[in-house]
Amino acid sequence: MTISYNRLWKLxxxxxxxxxxxxxxxxxxxxxxxxMAHGESITTDSLLKICxxxxxxxxxxxxxxxxxxxx
Length: 71
Description:
The chain is mainly α. It is 56% helix and 8% strand. Helix 2 (19-26) crosses helix 4.
């Protein structure tokens, strides 16, 4: 199983917000979003900052997906 942040990218599109704007609003560095784009883990603190900035919850920006290689 892996974590997918596709919900975050869709939310940014819906809000017409750029990643740079999110970084500034949430107070996180661009490397946080780069790690997310590559499916890497980030701290809960960073996730919380993003959720507060977007006024949403964890499940609005991420989901656990089945690994295709597990079959």
